[in-house]
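Quarterly update, task 2.4: adenosine-5'-triphosphate-bound model.
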Amino acid sequence: MSLTAEALTLEQGGTAVVHGVSLGLQPGEVAGILGPNGAGKSTLLRALAGLHTPAQGEARLNGERLHRFRGRDRARELGYLPQAATVHWPLPVERVVALGRLPHLGPWQRLGSEDAYAVDRALAATGVEELRDRPVTQLSGGERARVLLARVLAGEPSILLADEPVAGLDPYHQVHFMELVRDYAHQGRTVALVLHDLNLAARFCDRLFLMDEGELVAQGTPKEVLDPRHLDEVFGIRAVYGEVEGEPYVVPWGRA
Ligand SMILES: Nc1ncnc2c1ncn2[C@@H]1O[C@H](COP(=O)(O)OP(=O)(O)OP(=O)(O)O)[C@@H](O)[C@H]1O
């Protein structure tokens, strides 16, 4: 499934914070949305998830206007993981992950074997199987983040949108998460992540979108987008570049 933004202008508190942004997310690719704090990344991601109504422009899912989809139909196709997501009830982890199957169930329908398999797969993929009986409110921040990712994956959405999903994860789980979403995308799904880690973006994303002050200022491969000029002009930094095992790395080194 493809997801596109057509000349999206988005407002927060009556002020435009995203100005006429157009972009396309393609199946089979991990897209990274980068930019300084306040650039409009989360607002854009929410609009792509159908959770923020544009002041102007459209988001389209496979060419159809996103707001035309019923909530449940949209939720089956589009999985959205918000920034610093949390759960306020002490539900066992397995029940939280099973909530990800709701878009697939009819009214009053109970989970079937297919749903149970999907929940088990998501618990295994995110490495939280051993936490399945623990109340989610008693987990560490990183454990909870993996459980909430499992909830989204349990829904097996065609498109996964995640806002700073690796913030709060330890290095092992950051790399594990990025490998997981890369495999997910390379199975023909569409993935877009808001990221602050330039290094993970360089290594794991196929395409990057760089936002600054509500504008899309660059898009392309990591090499094209993370060039010294953009890092200087947009982030005000200089970086160290290199390659290991044929994959690029970018380490922020100092202020420009
Ligand atoms: N509910 C709100 N009411 C008013 N202004 C808001 C609201 N939410 C966000 N904003 C403003 O909109 C702009 C874009 O915010 P957004 O959260 O999209 O940025 P971001 O690029 O995701 O930032 P960060 O990297 O800090 O998470 C910011 O200037 C922010 O202060």
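Highlight for this quarter: The radius of gyration is 18 Å.
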